[in-house]
Amino acid sequence: MASQALPARGARLGRQVAPGLVPRQREQRAEVPTVRAVVLALPGGNALSTRRRSPMAAAAIWPLARHLVRAGAADGVAAHVVHYRFRGWNGGHAHPAEDAEWAVGEAVRRYGDVPVSLVGLDMGARAALHAGGHSAVRSVVALAPWLPEGPEPEPVKQLNGRQVLIVHGTDDATTDPELSYGLAERAKKVNREVCRFEVHTDGHGLHQHRPEVFALTADFVLGSLLERPFARPVADALAAPPPLGLRMPLASGFGRSLRA
Questions:
Q1: What is the pLDDT of residues 81-108, one digit of tens each?
Q2: Whether the predicted pLDDT of 254 surpasses 70
Q3: How does pLDDT run across 202-233, given as a tens digit for each residue?
Q4: What pTM value is reported for the model?
Q5: Under a CB-based contact definition with an 8 Å cutoff, are residues 43 and 100 in contact?
Q6: CA 220 to chain centre
Q7: Whether 139 contacts 225, CB under 8 Å
Q8: Could you give the CA distance from residue 249 to residue 77 in angstroms, rounded to a whole number?
Q9: Separation between Cα atoms, residue 79 and residue 182, nearest integer Å
Q10: What is the maximal distance between C-alpha atoms in the chain?
Q11: Which phi and psi angles does 79 have, rounded to 5°?
């Protein structure tokens, strides 16, 4: 592991996410496992803004990061919520994507040669997809990704060799589910390890089926980072050809009996 810090750029990993809900005395006695894998949670943002990061956007993804730590802490999974330099994507600058890639390098500097999973929401999902080409990235999760239509299609070649999960609510009025399907379809042509789940009747925040979305994300992230078998619906989605594996419905109650 490198001994020198990466050049300062304004972006930060933020403090390590704690699992929470652990009694203080028990927490003090518990041994801290060696970090074997890292999750970087990437918040949403705005199309154009050079203002500092949004605390509200970070707060929106914090519960998911905590859930992932709670599920994987015993196996050495650590998580950080990335703090961007700016809250905007800012056109061709793609500042959050640059910051996400920097954060992967910083995680490797801190923890050594560990696999990394990028988990993004909204604009953070787009940043995760863009930064997925970093050599340390094992998997990418894009939740309700913001994928604005433009003259050039979103890149997908960088996702080759990564395991990719896209999740989108069918009633999302903020980001277009059909755009994420189109990206998943193109990504599947260069990488078989791509799947996409549709959360029927849910909106942009995926609040209506939050327990299922959290369980799906945890199963995918921990499966990829720790090389565990995926739950059957996830394995089936990865194996199925388009459109089946890219329009997989997220079943109500997913996570209550994952291996059933």
A1: 999 999 889 988 999 999 999 999 999 9
A2: yes
A3: 999 999 999 999 999 999 999 999 999 999 99
A4: 0.91
A5: no
A6: 10
A7: yes
A8: 28
A9: 30
A10: 57
A11: -140, 150
pLDDT band of residue 2 (cuts 50, 70, 90) is very low
Give the integer Cα–Cα distance in Å for 164 and 74. 24
37, 225 contact by CB (below 8 A)? yes
Inter-residue contact 223 to 193 (CB < 8 Å): no
Q: Cβ(196)–Cβ(180) under 8 Å?
A: yes
Cis status of the peptide bond prior to 243, with omega within 30 of 0: yes
Place of tokens 């925040």: 205
> What CA–CA distances, in Å, run from 180 to 36, 65, 103, 248, 254?
31, 22, 24, 13, 22
